[in-house]
Amino acid sequence: MPRHLAVIMDGNGRWAQQRRRPRIIGHRAGARAVRNTIDFCLQQGVEVLTLYAFSSENWRRPEEEVSGLMRIFLNVLDTEVSELARRGVRIRFIGDREAFSDALRSKMQHTETLSGANAKLTLVIAASYGGQQDIAHAARVLAQQVADGQLAAQDITAAKLAEHVALSDLPEVDLCIRTGGDLRISNFLLWQIAYSELWFTPVLWPDVDEKLLSQAFNDYAQRQRRFGMTGEQIDAGAGAALNP
Ligand code: IPE
Ligand code: IPE
Ligand code: MG
């Protein structure tokens, strides 16, 4: 059972196109699949669910699609947050908030405050998020510490950088799923998935249900995570120390 599941929710546009509907209909249908996924994670006792909702590159899409997506985000925050908070979900956002409207930014802030004390499931929404930007930000923080004389350049280690990327206070990403059939990461979590298990499916995001997620979890349970060691070492229990 993964403690931390991350999902690249891809295929909304193609789902709509297959039905000869505008892409935005696919994004609305995608919001339903988000609900199913949250329900599934709550049932299964997953601790953290990180969803890739909008990449730093998705701003390149036609203005009509971007503004439609922003309306869906606003609407979902208005209508779903209090219920999720009631069910024990803590909601957080990662990514460049400055890129969003004042209205969306204040809703994000409100959502985090309202749900901040919850502990059943942490739901992280990656919005205007880019993995490269995340790493660059961490590098900037460390560079500033060096400039201020608080840190020596030779003390910049992977562990130090890891403290400043997104999700650093949460369990490692165990499983990363991408729907929609493309075999790429598209600037989602980069640093954080160094040893995550990857799972790809051609199923389009709006068609994702609990059955498909169970299949991903079953496949995950069959995998041997070796973290650079040999299978024999892992069989002897050496992995537990690395991934408690
Ligand atoms: C993913 O679905 C949702 C966002 C990127 C916001 P797409 O909109 O990328 O759907 P496809 O890949 O075009 O089918
Ligand atoms: C990745 O999907 C981003 C999200 C799912 C939010 P894209 O559809 O933007 O990825 P590319 O452009 O096909 O790589
Ligand atoms: Mg896509």
Q: Unreliable stretches, pLDDT < 50, 5 or more residues?
A: none
The average pLDDT value, as a whole number, equals 97
**What is the rounded Rg?**
19 Å
> Any idea of the CATH class?
Alpha Beta
Explain this structure to me?
The protein is α/β, with parallel strands linked by helices and 244 residues long. The chain has one domain (4-131, 171-235): Decaprenyl diphosphate synthase-like (Undecaprenyl pyrophosphate synthetase, 3-Layer(aba) Sandwich), CATH 3.40.1180. The chain has nine helices and six strands. It has helices spanning 12-18, 23-44, 63-86, 102-115, 131-147, 158-162, 210-222, 231-235, 239-242; strands spanning 4-8, 48-55, 89-94, 121-129, 175-178, 197-200. A six-stranded parallel β-sheet has the order 3-4-2-1-5-6, sandwiched between helices. β3, α4 and β4 (121-129) form a beta-alpha-beta unit. α1 packs across α2 (23-44), α2 runs parallel beside α3 (63-86) and α3 runs parallel beside α4 (102-115). It is globular, with a radius of gyration of 19 Å. The mean pLDDT is 97. It binds 3-methylbut-3-enyl trihydrogen diphosphate (IPE) (2 copies) and magnesium ion (MG).
In short:
The protein is of the alpha/beta class and 244 residues long. The protein has helices spanning 12-18, 23-44, 63-86, 102-115, 131-147, 158-162, 210-222, 231-235, 239-242; strands at residues 4-8, 48-55, 89-94, 121-129, 175-178, 197-200. Strands 3-4-2-1-5-6 form a 6-stranded parallel β-sheet, sandwiched between helices.
